[in-house]
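Retro notes - structure team

What went well: the batch runner handled both jobs without manual restarts.
What didn't: labels got mixed up in the shared folder, which is why I'm recording both outputs here explicitly, each with its sequence directly above its tokens.

Job 1
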Amino acid sequence: MSISDHKQKELERLSAILQEAHQVQGVSLWTDAWKRLKRNKAAMFSLWSLIVIVLLAIFTPLLPLQSPTYQDVKNRELLPPQMESYSLGIKEYDQETERLQTEAQTHAYGSSEREALLTEVDARVKKHPIQLYWLEPGFISKGMISLRLMIFGDFCIPSLFGTDKLGRDVLSRVFWGSRVSLACGFIATFVSLLIGVSYGAISGYLGGWVDNLMMRLVDVFYSIPFIFIVIFIMSFLSGPDVREVLNEYGVGQIHVFFLLIGAIYWLTMARVVRGQVISLKNEQFIEAARTIGATRMQIVFRHLVPNVMGIVIVYLTLTIPAVIRFEAFLSFLGMGVQAPDISWGLLVNEGVQVITIIKSYWWMIAFSGMALAVTLFALNFLGDGVRDALDPKLKNK
């Protein structure tokens, strides 16, 4: 065989190897993690359960539920789970308002009588059952409630979870309470993510005396009993003068509560991110970023932070249930979410208040506690599954 034939065969072999290599597609970390997560049945069941819970919380105003705040102590105090239908009576209210308005415009009343009738019509419009039943909902919630009334009318799901000591429907309160509890978990965790990741990444990258100073501040914050600080701040914000000032700026007490919890849970996040950044800051891709002239902040937030998001996501899935538990604990003590807002912790507190030796109103605590427990279990199972899926040591297990 000549040398040219040998070279030709070698080129054909190398060409076949190259073509085969082009056909092989690499698998990214996230794709591989998703494949492994799908094999974890408990984590996937938890994920779908959480999706259902979050969707139900978001679209609660669209559901044909009873009013979560309307009180009827005389007729509905502490009723056990019911199967009887319930009507809001909004349609009759609107018809009566329309009748009065038509009567004021068509009948030959005197000026004083017509003015009195129009005043009554204006009062009925301002005190519409939507404002009475849902306590002046926000713009988006009000639109969803109006759509719910267009679709379902006055029909409401029966009191399947019973009623409380003020005659309010527990089922609707559990659904509306999910909005506050989940919002607290996600918003406070997002705040802790912003503070903790930024603080830890900057501390780990700069190193030296800056890192020592920043971490000693974290140690000092760790030594503070934050539950007492939260109780003190919430007691301060409960004052009428402070509440009036916050209302002028459109800030509610519940918003401050969310931000306050988020400002507590960033400490561990900062330590975790700092350790990861220290292990990555001397890698070759960071040296390459320095070579092309990237600034310190660009290296931190464009190169280091994206490479630690795996561990951050795992920690987030474990932080959310911790925040929800903390909110429930404070609300249970009466220092968290305040009426007329509703949360699962507040509902459990209301249930405990009516438990007596003589009679147990089990539905007051069973359903809200079950909703809280199912959500926390799902978040913890999902967090364990995400941790295992992102752990390269468990890749082939």
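Job 2
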Amino acid sequence: MEIKIGIAKINKYAMTECGDSVDITERPSGGISAILADGQGSGKSAKITSTLVVNKAVALIADGARDGAVARAVHDYLYVVKDGKVSSTLTLLSADMDTQTVVFSRNSNCPVIVKHEFGIDVYDEDISSIGVHKRMKPLMSQLPMEAGMILVSYTDGIQAAGRKRGKPLDFSKIEKLIVENKAEDANFIAESILEYALELDDYRPGDDMTVVVMGICDTDMVYNIQRMSVSFPC
């Protein structure tokens, strides 16, 4: 199998920095994880918080920590560093080759959406952000890895798109995008969801927006070539 990850993000209108951070890291026992964080507020202060969260998670995954332990440890770290006064969301999407499962951890008010052979499941149970409450645990889910699976998550700039303009996001349109595309189309799905949210906000995003899509693809590759493509405006 082959893992495809698509990421699309944009900063809040009139802000020079995006308060969301996202990174991808290899798992030492095989596989890959995508880490998505949204720091409290917007601009530079939010960016500092989300970068701190993502970098800590990357380091812990590289050390071999399991995703649930990573989320707890990152929470403890943020709580101590910021004295319990600054929050951040944190979502981990992992394709674990060692266990042949997909694992996702949520501390976010935004869902993880999973497409599989039987349809779509939406994981949107209420859960607190990290960094503020003294005791915190993530919502964890683990599913058998199957070719064709798609996992999608995003930050609350997507979820809140259009509300202030009286045209809130229609979740069924996001579901339709996921249903009508394949795991190989991870980049297209991410960019299409972002484009839809931008359209609702009249292309003046009311908050930082980030979309992460992970696709589990069947492949007949002879050589295990790893590829990554990045587009970064500056």
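One thing worth noting from job 2: The two ends are 34 Å apart (CA to CA).
We'll revisit the folder naming next retro.
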